[in-house]
Amino acid sequence: MPNLSAEQLEELRQIPTCSVANAIETFDVMPRTEGFMLPAVKSIFPEMGHMIGYAVTGVITANMPPSSNMSVSRLDWVDTILSVPAPRVLVLQDIDYPNVIGSFWGEVQANIHGALDCVGTVTDGGVRDLDEMRELGFNAFASDVLVSHAYVHLIDVGVPVTVGGLNVNMGDIILGDQHGVMSIPQDIAADVPAAVKRVEDREREMISLCQSEDFSVDRLKDQLRKMYGG
């Protein structure tokens, strides 16, 4: 479960996802093809900036009415949400994807979940009521914008989910911005800001050279060898 202070979490929130992804690569804790969502899940409100929180997971469907053995009480959902420390990000896997037919998220759900210290959602399902959600400041990353909620309902909560190709568990650190959504491994999260600085310091050398009046191909090759070898 989460082991970061509020200050550490806020420090991470202010870092762009691309920089965090670069930093995580230096720890060699996973293949570079993992740890982030594919572009099907995109920022609905890029102007809201960065979102970070601890994952609360659930599974939804909207293509048929709920049945007694295929539905989860919204009261149980509230208890599941409160089992994870704030700030919280709701990560919902829509089993209808890619044929999404209903939006779980809209004005009412954003208000309910915002009152429970949730800062936003990530889903491969739909969202609607965009103006109202934007005004509330409830962030959203989704695959679709849809008019109707259809028969949308929860069918499981607090379980591992896969959204946008990313496996997410309860309590995972989720970071999102205009570039997309990623998770930050708990065991290295506290060390990521320092790693970001180290990577950006190296990159700054290359950028400064390319923008310098003293730029030359020979100096560029020297810098390329330093960065990439060969």
The number of domains: 2
Mean pLDDT: 96
Kindly state the percentage of residues in helix: 25-40%
Q: How large a portion of the residues is in β-strands, by DSSP E?
A: 25-35%
Characterize the largest beta sheet: strand count, sense, and whether it forms a barrel: 8 strands, mixed
The count of helical stretches stands at 7
- Uncertain stretches of 5 or more adjacent residues: none
Could you please say which CATH topology of the largest domain applies here?
Answer: Glucose Oxidase, domain 1
User: Which CATH C-level class of the largest domain is it?
Assistant: Alpha Beta
Number of separate strands: 13
Describe this structure in words.
With 230 residues, the chain is of the alpha/beta class. It folds into two domains: 6-185, 3-Layer(bba) Sandwich (Glucose Oxidase, domain 1), CATH 3.50.30; 193-228. It has helices at 6-13, 17-25, 74-82, 107-115, 130-136, 192-211, 217-228; strands at 42-43, 51-61, 88-94, 103-105, 118-123, 126-127, 139-142, 144-145, 153-157, 161-163, 166-168, 173-177, 180-184. The strands form three sheets. Strands 1, 2, 3, 5, 7, 9, 12 and 13 form an eight-stranded mixed beta sheet that branches. Strands 4-6-8 form a three-stranded parallel beta sheet. The relative contact order is 0.22.
